[in-house]
Predict the structure.
Amino acid sequence: MAGIAFGGDYNPEQWPREVQEEDVRLMREAGVTMVSLGIFAWALLEPAEGRYEFGWLDEVVDRLHAAGIAVNLGTPTAAPPPWFSLKHPDSRPVTREGRRVGTGGREHACSSHPAFRHATAELVSRLAQRYGDHPAVVMWHVHNEYGAPLGECYCEASVAAFREWLKVRYATLDALNHAWGTTFWGQHYGDWAEIDAPRWSHTVVNPAQRLDYARFANDEHRGHYLLQKELLTGKPVTTNFAGTVNCKSMDLWTWAGDVDVIANDHYLDAERPDNHIHLAMSADLSRSLAGGGPWLLMEHSTGAVNWQRWGVAKRPGEMRRNSLAHVARGSDAVMFFQWRASRFGAEKFHSAMVPHAGTDSALWRDVVRLGAEVGRLAEVAGSRVSAEVAIVWDWESYWALELDWRPSTELRFLERVEAYYAALWREHVTVDFVHPSADISGYRLVVAPSAYLLTEGSAKNLQRYVEDGGSLVVSYFSGIVNEHDTIHPGAYPGVLREVLGLSVEEFHPLRDDETVALGRPDGVGRIWSERVRPAGARTVQSFATGPDAGHAAVTRHNLGAGVAWYIATAPDDLRELLAEIVVRAGVTRPGELPDALEMVERGPYVFLINHADAAAPVPGVVGADLISGAPFTGEVPAGGVCVVRTP
């Protein structure tokens, strides 16, 4: 497609023909260029086993094509039809607690179940044959949000598949027993048939087994996706990630090479005052999964989201800022759930491009305005965002860190990552995310906030980066275990001792209301304290109070041509500390800008998004504003957005 795609999920099966005809007219008025179609329509496409009814979908696809609207055609496997669940009741997933889920929702078939895979292949084959050459169909959309709400399944089909997965991974039971540490609590296995899924128990279940089951579940969902991709030839194939930041159950690094284009869903958390920073983080992670190239915002909301604690409508201008912030960070699409608000079903209070209030509403007028503005940004499509700073993100570390019986329940993967990301965002530093084993040589600064699980290979990768001249920042409780959740030999932080130039003698996690003073005026640390013993590193800041008073809290270690920093607590002044490190690392960034101004360079285009209620001056940016068509004045209006094409 040319330009930035604009549109959303379209569910014409919920509406009579006259409304469908009005939909196309309104789509043209709003500037819609693409819709996602058929995502939950299995029961209508195959109302009984082997009986297919495509006529209604033919009519819709043809109508959209006649209006010049492209189709992102879904495979509706996220909503198996009632006849399938009736015939195959054992296909319904089982929770870790042993409860089989019911029907009436979605994602109620196990990705490992043979009958489900067979039915999937039958339906998808027919969709591919019928629509693969249709000129309206520009992309295939497989399933919907793998991992949400179905992550792990504990049915018998899953357990059987898990055993086969383990045989491939370990080859022998001796290797498995060693990896899982089964001499602990007498768990040694003598036959593959003895291995069960790590179901709920009255005490903690082997963490290595649970970690492998998370990997297995991810691979089973990927297998279900790949089954469909192999049948869908001739057009790009994608699946929409269920929010890159919040989708804990899927290791999206393993998915990135399997999709032809990265597609992400993002929903603003109305409770959070900093939700625009969380949005930016999700967008940056999406772009990183795409290898720095363009990706697609497949879903977000025009206003309120009905499944959050409070269904809060967006403030004036917020939908526009949200949408263009995604484009700023690499998206070549602005898509919503959904086109027209549903009158029935679980999401009838979810906002839409056409609200229940209809076209005589401020929301509709905002949608039309946004569609026109997205059209003016066509030349931005395909351009890339570059970053000099990267944050290490590893889903396996995410899984392992949040298993049972860690030194503190406050050790949460996202908590530290978000803290470091937010501090860099407020310093107007654009960030990529990287896997710890990735090539990071092109970055001036790499930050590892939650690298609890770190393999020897990944640790060597970080050390080479520092020795070759890079700057590395590591937060507490990193480098602790290997890929089997086994503690690295020797003192903490295991495989990071050499690069950091220190060891940690003992952890001293802090209680909810407990803080420690740091050796900087008004410096305060929360969540964590530990006994750091420098072994080559220089103490930059010390604990002034608490169990580790007088010992290092922040260290700096010169190694080879580079430097490695370690931060042994959660400091309140993290932004100030990171700002100093950013300067030392030689990271280029804009001069003094208001805190609430978001500035991102995408190729020759500078996106300026003002999240404040006052105008924001932006010195030094010269060029034409693509949205207004006029020269940029050097100021972004309150709550406004400018996209400046620089010379």
